[in-house]
Amino acid sequence: MLCAISGEAPQEPVVSPKSGSVFEKRLIEAYIAENGKDPVNGEELSTEDLIQVQSQRVVRPRPPTLTSIPSLLSVFQEEWDALALETYTLRQTLAQTRQELSTALYQHDAAVRVIARLTQERDEARDALSKVSVGASRGAAAGGEAMQVDAAGLPEAVLARVESTQASLSKTRRKRAVPEGWASADSISAYKPLETTAPLVPGAKALAVHASGDLALIGGAEGAIGIYSLSQKQVVQNLQIDGTVTAAVWAGDKAVVASSTGAVAVYENGTRTAAFTSHAGAATALATHATGDIVASVGADKSYVLYDLTTNAAVTQVFTDASLLSVQFHPDGHLIAAGGVDGQIKIFDVKTGTAAANYAMSGPVKALFFSENGTFLASVADRSTVVSIWDLRHSQEVKALDTGSQVDSISWDYTGQFLLTGGPSGVTVQQYSKSSKSWSEPLRSAVPAVAATWGAAAQRIVALNGDGGLTVVGAA
């Protein structure tokens, strides 16, 4: 009989009642002292449970010293016993690890197959949804949740407003003179920080300034929304929405905000007048149409949605092939541009929802802004220092403006001369000269901004910092 651990004939054999195996007594006692169980089947075992086997005993000599061959052999025997115990434990551990790894690989393969099937079914459902026309209800109650979808086109009333606005604006846009009292490059170059408020909204990242230039709409974490009066220097209204505010715009006198829950809410005079939940994921950006009563939102669900604020209804939803981060209407209102996480700028015909153009960026498209002359589109990728200028007439990038610092927001002024950029290192103003077709930088200020926009007549810049406070930059 051989020891189940060392594989040698035991000098002092014992039997385990748990497994019936024979062991060398010193080896099994050492194993029990360390592990407390039978090495063969893993059951609980103590030295008292071992059964002594009667065998002819060999009288061993007195312990030798290391100065002789017998003493060396004794040391080698002890080392071999320890090695035998360790090797046996390693074999058991290896077998158990192999079994666990095999099970984990099987479960991973099954999970991958399920995810692939669900992703395919989701994409097929979205594609089918984008081709289905659902009649939009015109009698939605104020404040109700509307989710009418019509990817095939806009309702007649909305379409008529879009076409009328496009016709009136496209005729006069290129001949439009610079308004009297508008800021010049010389005046902008002298802009300095005038005042900085205390934090107004915790975790604020969304900013929009009313056309009057006085009211700043600020959205932040935990759904906090504040409307700050620049003239009164105080918050005049506090609003609330579920989730973190991701975007904010003004639609006339109505404040429109989007949240991380996918909700889009409309407020007027401090009261919520409409709420929409068309997005399946977070709503990431908002834009206002030239009509002033149509708003667009984009979301992580790969779609953009148009809302008619005259009827408080979502009138169309168009799905794309990637999650969307930014959105902007063309000044004439006939095109809508959406920036995706795949680095693509997707331009659609507002009236039909069909794709009109596609531009490629180096990364997720953080922000978009059309110039007021309708010729150029500015865009910036996430964490990039470069603003790309696209010529819509030739569908190509005509200028790459490297600001030298990260850009998080961009905003073109009404005249199309001045492009404002904002980021953690400060704000800049890039000027385009139509006569020389060249770019210059009249202003670079170290005012940090997670979002920045123009005030009335470009006479000042309003910047939102990471603490939720506003900084006004203008002429002293």
From TrEMBL:
Species for this entry = Aspergillus candidus
Pfam families on file: ANAPC4_WD40, Prp19
Q: Does the keyword Transport apply?
A: no
What is this protein's function? Ubiquitin-protein ligase which is mainly involved pre-mRNA splicing and DNA repair. Required for pre-mRNA splicing as component of the spliceosome.
Q: Its family?
A: Belongs to the WD repeat PRP19 family.
Q: Where are the WD repeats?
A: 276-317, 324-358
Question: In its keyword annotation, does this UniProt entry include Isomerase?
Answer: yes
EC number per UniProt: 2.3.2.27
Query: Which GO MF terms does the UniProt record name?
Result: peptidyl-prolyl cis-trans isomerase activity; ubiquitin protein ligase activity
The protein's name is Pre-mRNA-processing factor 19
